[in-house]
Fold each of these.
Amino acid sequence: MEHQLHVLFMWVTLVVISVVSGARGKQHISAVGDPGMERDELRVAFEAGNFCNEVGEEAPGMGSPRAADCFDLSNFSVRHRVAEADNKLGVGKPFPGAVNNVDLYAVQKELYLGSLCQVEDTPSPWQFWMIMLKNGNYDTKSGLCPENGKKVPPFNPGRFPCFGKGCMNQPILYHQQTQLLGGDTLRGSFNGTYDLGSDIGGGLDGISFFEVVWEKKVGAGSWVFSHKLKTSKKYPWLMLYLRADATKGFSGGYHYDTRGMLKTLPESPNFKVSLTLDIKQGGGPKSQFYLTDIGSCWKNNGDPCDGDVLTDVTRYSEMIINPDTPAWCSPKSLGSCPPYHITPDDKKIFRNDTTHFPYQAYHYYCAPGNAKHLEQPVSTCDPYSNPQAQELVQLLPHPIWAEYGYPTKQGQGWVGDGRTWKLDVGGLSSRLYFYQDPGTPPARRIWTSIDVGTEIFVSDKDEIAEWILSDFDVLIYTSPIHK
Ligand SMILES: *[C@@H]1O[C@H](CO)[C@@H](O)[C@H](O)[C@H]1NC(C)=O
Ligand SMILES: *[C@@H]1O[C@H](CO)[C@@H](O)[C@H](O)[C@H]1NC(C)=O
Ligand SMILES: *[C@@H]1O[C@H](CO)[C@@H](O)[C@H](O)[C@H]1NC(C)=O
């Protein structure tokens, strides 16, 4: 008996090792619940946010801006776990955890939808891919967004787009629940507009629009997520991302518990992100398409965030692949560059070293508005567009990123150059500059959100972006990555 158990144990161990390490001996496991988006029984959710990732006010008849499409397949039919009545839940309607404040209601609704979608797994359960839609309008007279996490009184407009009262509204959302078509194809969608009272069925001229359609052949390949985002005069700044978020704790840009797909949180340097991206339309010169935007949160003293918005700082790094995006960082604008660059062989190059610093590799760096010991010159990040202070390290395609599998030339991965990428996001993010108070132990760089999508930043005409994303995976290397 003991011998048999031992043999069984050996056999199980071997199976586990071969599954984990793969045919060529790579030591990695997937950090996401749905590796490569290959699971037929999809888990996908939707969240919309205002300028500081809150709700402010629900759109009439739409409920709280959280929704989900999660189903199981049984006997060749789709069994939905989330009813349309759940998706329409809004303030005043009860569910386990419901509260009266519109912002907190959305938080609780996300947790509730998560409980309906949750898949048990090791090392922890997971809930869904998250589609995030954001409206960049800010009504400075509304007093709705804090400044670096601090509540501030209303102030005069001018710095942000807003057509007037109500410009921070939540969208109209239509949902086509996933259906089985022709016996072997699954398809569903979310779409809608920010222009309340408009009819997207009558054409999109002059109105904003967003859409994500997901489709998959049963038992084969990846889910294919087709995205569309259109700005309008009233809504010139819109963002649409597909995110792998933390399954608990704060995902990037949030100061409350969220639900997501990252059943293990990736930590720099030992992880990679693979995905297939095919951009059909770029969205104009202001479209900052992110070939991954990674988000996390830590305090300026290196401590992890704890929900105190006055000292928590959201940290983002983004690779912008629109070739129209210029490097604002330059020898003449050192304040738009990080204080230094670190090479793959760990050499530090200061930004005042004009012969060696790779200015063209950085679009823009901005420091947290609550940092106390900033090196001058410096540009601080927009203090209103997150619930707390933020720091941004925005990159551009450049030969110095070759080591990490990122685009090395402007235009790579752009319209007409669809590719499958395997990005050493962990390696690169371990060598980026992020602000910390002098003398404090370096923060652990644990990433709670990995996003792909675009931010069309204040366009002066209606712009349309269209892209297709599939095969998304986050791979954690259990031994150091060998080059
Ligand atoms: C499976 O579906 C078929 C056709 O709809 C039906 O006749 C059958 O009873 C179902 N079986 C089960 C176990 O539900
Ligand atoms: C939006 O989705 C609905 C299904 O929910 C579909 O009927 C409609 O055609 C879509 N609208 C546009 C403009 O694509
Ligand atoms: C360049 O910047 C570094 C770091 O701020 C500083 O120590 C050094 O003195 C500067 N060098 C020159 C030539 O200004």
Amino acid sequence: MPVPPSESMSRRTFVSGAAFFPLFFRLGWVEASGQDAAARLKLGYQNRLKALLSAGHLPYIDIESSCNPTKINIPWIVAQMDELGIGLMALSADPTRSQFEHGTRYDSLAGELITTYPDYFIPTGNGGQPPYLTEATNDFFNATIEEAKRVPLFLLGEYEIRHYPSPRQFKRGETDRDVTIPIDGPIGHRIFALSQELGIPFQLHYEIENDLLVPLEKMLAGYPRAKMIWCHLAQVRYSERASDYSADYVEGLIKRFPNLYFDTAFGDAQSVYPGSNQRHARVWKMFGGLREEWLELMVSYPGRFLSALDLGGDRINQLPEYDRKHRDFLSYLPRDVQHQIAYRSAWKLLFQDDFS
Ligand SMILES: [Zn+2]
């Protein structure tokens, strides 16, 4: 049984408290050109994935997980990744409200992760949540751009534009994550423009509702070079609000927008959203097994679908359970599609070439 991260940890732990900053500057992501640094990371990722494949694992690239950067036990996560055969994680920081109140506008986790464990983590920009995204918008985006000059960021987000409280938050009565930001408003435009400017994808959390689909399509059409990962494929919290959404609808989007991707972080077949009492992971049949239309879609366009765990600050110590559930989902796919969705799709998206 794995030892969970210490709840009492007040600051992220790397290697038994070893000072990070001198190491960071000695290794010199700053000195190396961005391209050199990215190429070095890519080689390490490639070697790690190959080693896991040789050892008989199906390594996946978790394209979307986040953490509370002040309470994170990185050595524990790394040990779990080795034990479970997880390839790489795009682990982003969701800086806390307390950090915000103390003046933080951006957290430097991404650079620290690739300094200490460069073969495990894909440098990812901070998650975009209130108050950072909404009350310090300029500072937040400017800090993201500054970080991209120092650290070879490969992706951005997850930006929460329309976000219902998660099942856990709902049960705890927390409403601060009930977010509504117009995707076609100023913040939405900044996100799409930033993705185009930096040439890297962003992760979007955007609940599936009929009224939200048209503005999203408008943005995708307006920013054809922006690369977007729409997180949580077919996670519909209230089916009565999403009658226009279906596997056919998603196929239409895939055909129209070549830079649109979907991650496969959704609940298991029994998972119920407490706000609606509905089983919100719509890819599943009632008693398990993937619905034909969703299976067919993923088999037809496997390059557009990405493995993801969606760990978060309040569930990071459930990594083994999330791994088990994600592997259960992958097991319903044909073998070649498993490998495509597990790591090949992310590889192509992040590095623009085929994994070899
Ligand atoms: Zn999300």
